[in-house]
Amino acid sequence: MSYVLLTGGAGYIGSHTAxxxxxxxxxxxxxxxxxxxxxxxxxxxxxxxxKSIIKIEGDVLDVEALAAVFAQYPVKAVVHFAGxxxxxxxxxxxxWYYETNVGGTIKLCQVMAKxxxxxxxxxxxxxxxxxxxxxxxxxxxxxxxMNPYGQSKLxxxxxxxxxxxxxxxxxxxxxxxxxxxxxxxxxxxxEDPNGIPNNLMPxxxxxxxxxxxxxxxxxxxxxxxxxxxxxxYIHVTDLAAGHxxxxxxxxxxxxxxxxxxxxxxxxxVLDIVxxxxxxNQVEVPYQFAARRPGDVARYFADPSKAKTxxxxxxxxxxxxxxxxxxxxxxxxxxxxx
Length: 337
Ligand code: NAD
Ligand code: UDP
Known about the structure:
The protein is of the alpha/beta class. It has a domain at 3-181 and 234-262: Rossmann fold, CATH 3.40.50. Helices cover 41% and strands 18% of the residues. It has a 7-stranded parallel β-sheet, sandwiched between helices. Strands 12-9-14 form a 3-stranded mixed β-sheet. A two-stranded parallel sheet has the order 7-10. It starts with a strand and ends in a 6-residue tail after the last helix. 49% of the residues are buried. It binds nicotinamide-adenine-dinucleotide and uridine-5'-diphosphate. Nicotinamide-adenine-dinucleotide is lined by residues 7-8, 10-14, 32-37, 59-61, 81-85, 100, 104, 123, 125, 177, 180. Residues 179, 198-200, 203, 215-218, 229, 231, 269, 292, 295 line the site of uridine-5'-diphosphate.
């Protein structure tokens, strides 16, 4: 019996990936300090699957706590979600972001090396393409950081690449996510942001449920189909399946590689808002506001590499995304609390 260890397993993407892995027959350990999540998400994954997860509360900066996991359980691979992800906060607290995101990954890899576990999937982000103007964006797009969060992802990618070059018994898949949205179709697990959401979809669902008065749409004068920003929204269930595929790839096609996980389709803010309202029969009041600094007009993936090498592509539709997002929010108006 061997385990897949998920750092940050209780978080939004980690919990959906735990669900997908259990359903794929894997045994799962979650290692999370619950700084941005609660063990309730994992309990619900256990209820949904009828299988149990080994839940360990710990910090990726705590080498001894990490080592204790590898000493106790035979781990065959790690999916490393644990990290900090708020762009604005990263500009205020850059040292904390670099320490957690870069330092945490280095410590994790040191412990993995010590225990001879050298299979790793890392949560990166499409933010490493900076303000690239030429979507669809393949993995060969030049990378650049726009803020400390993006820089921490890029630096971590370099660390991992250097590590694998230094020792080719490491197998590492870097996954660059586009815009994760949605929730498991059960409505039992989903995204549970703290405070005022920065991202579009949780803001929409909180407006729809009456927690916030209206959505501000940042900019309606972009050179896009309707003037609003265009992004590549990926259902979190598809994203979770991408991790299952990436783990398999580590064993069948070892080495280092980076993959975009996105749908390849660009959707505007108005596409999302109008479809959300129509499918769910709810009102989403909005008004147009100024462009948000740092936003680009159009940003979407070329996901063909993941299709070819991981045999993975998105399956969910926009209607699935808006329905599942709403199903989660209306059944859990206060998230996991
Ligand atoms: P999340 O905050 O829901 O999950 C991260 C988890 O890591 C949380 O459960 C948190 O408690 C845990 N954690 C944070 N610091 C930790 C530490 N020091 N030790 C142990 N656990 C710690 O975020 P998410 O949306 O699930 O994102 C997962 C990963 O994907 C992150 O690395 C994030 O940067 C990356 N990512 C997310 C998005 C997105 O839009 N959600 C996009 C691109 C990349
Ligand atoms: N957006 C918006 N209002 C909000 C939040 C986001 O109009 O309250 C827009 C944003 O300008 C972008 C898109 O929605 O065009 C997606 O933004 P999000 O923050 O979710 O993700 P990003 O692509 O910036 O990482």
